[in-house]
Amino acid sequence: MMMDQPKACGDTRATATLPLLPRISVVLPVHNGEPYLDLAIASILGQTFTDLELICVDDGSTDSTPQILDRYAAADPRVRIITNRPNRGLPGALNVGFAAARGALHCWTSDDNIARPHMLERLAAALDDHPEAAIAHANYSVIDDHGTVTGYQKVGPASEILFGNRIGAAFLYRAEVTRRLDGYDELLFGVEDYDFWLRAARSFTFVTLDEDLYLYRRHGASLTDRRARAIHRLCARIILRELALVDDPALHAKVLLAHGLASRVDPRLGMLLKALILSPSTALLRLPAIVRHLAAHLRRHCLYGTI
Questions:
Q1: Which are the contacts of 37, defined by CB distance < 8 A and separation ≥ 6?
Q2: What is the pLDDT of residues 230-241, one digit of tens each?
């Protein structure tokens, strides 16, 4: 998968004077992000770490997103705008943005989320303190439509990434990671981030900060809510791909069980059956959970006529 050059997909606008070689490049892909875009942009431009560029990729928006972006670009020379026509989807917009990135460290954020003011400072310091690491990540809070905190998510060590996306929403990584992985897989819209981290974990070291550095918004219009079934099935596909590299049958079975039991929209019967075949003893230890899982999906089928 080749990284796209921004000029090939639309116009690129920026102020006349750009900061020279910013240390951090933040990509903000946006498609019709009007409701929360101001908050997302302000949270990046208001970071305590100021040596950055914010690359806003307008992915075919039809609302007031272009006007909002223009306003910020006119006021702050760190803001650059790339316009995709037509819409490329999230992973495509990310690839376009990072193809234009000039910083030694890369980060991206969503148009409906908010970075806490010291997020980039703390993540950059973690990478400075751990030169052997290529990726730093941290905990985050979950907020609703109104910005009210509804939950808190502790991220796990990358060593457990096969069991789920333990990296979270607050992260910073060296530009080498982008180059080595050749960006985000545009065929995996919805799980492009998990796929990216799975591939990264094969070659790079992570450092985990036990700090709350981000506000992740869950609302009815978010991608994770609107595309739940497709996302779960894509996730199953990439997990099976990674498990082809795992030789330990018991670990293989544990990962299959973890993902098989995690989905509320897809019963993942194939995963559960494969786990039983690979390691019957491991699967039998989870028998009560398997029974509850299957019963819940059976009820769902009876109520809604779908598995």
A1: 30, 65, 68, 69, 111
A2: 888 899 999 999
